[in-house]
# Entry
Amino acid sequence: MAILVVAEHDNKSIKKATLNAVAAAQKLGSEIHLIVAGHQAAQAAKAAAGIAGVTKVLHADAPHLEAFLAENVAALLSGLSKSYSHILAPATSNGKNVMPRLAALLDVQQISDICGIEAPDTFVRPIYAGNALATVKSKDPVKVITVRTTAFDAAAPSGGSAQVEPVSPPADSGLSAFVSRELSKSERPELTAAKVIVSGGRGMGSGENFTKVLEPLADKLGAAMGASRAAVDAGFVPNDWQVGQTGKIVAPDLYIAVGISGAIQHLAGMKDSRVIVAINKDEEAPIFQVADYGIVGDLFQIVPTVVEELKK
# Structure
């Protein structure tokens, strides 16, 4: 049977997380369909058709799908499920919102945050904040899966020539309604897609210090800004900056952790980074156990010095 991947998109373009989910699907089979659920999302469906490895794009268009409300999308996927052996979505906020509802509607067990595929019914997923890996086998007729995007290389966004097929979505469930959305605009790269991330922790002391100390470094490196949960809970920065088990999972080429002690929940979100640099005054901080390079000292002296060196 075919494999269905739920596309992450903004009704205009396909987000990179979808490419990682497609790459995971390719390890399960060659018949890969992509579902683009939205409103006036023909442009996104066209972009989806160009993804390498995708054989068909299902396009569900309706006003009540525009905001990707989980109840409506889960009902749509439930109606399509009989034609598929696996239904995959990126383990993003949307994926974590939709897929448990789908699993409940299908009366199957969700397999969350997979980072490896050993067989069509056998998957590897992290447990205990990533300190252990569990190999799980599912006997469910339909496997409902979320994919840890950092664990799979992205499929090529071009080179495919899939057919786009319209599908009729079910009526609005009426269980939820879209009220409003507040978007934070930034010229910086998106956190989950950035190649370089500069993150700050409680050691930054205040939100003002994020601006004064870390932003010049991020500007110089063309980096995204991140933070630990402690910094977010303290109100230093917005919660969409949070990296960790309860935040965003990232795996950039370079991750610079400044004033972050390295609690297990934070490490779970960034330890797959290619190169990790830690700056902390506490030489016993757990962050140094996963860091490739560590600097012990006062971040308020070290970071400005690094910025000055980068200007040379």
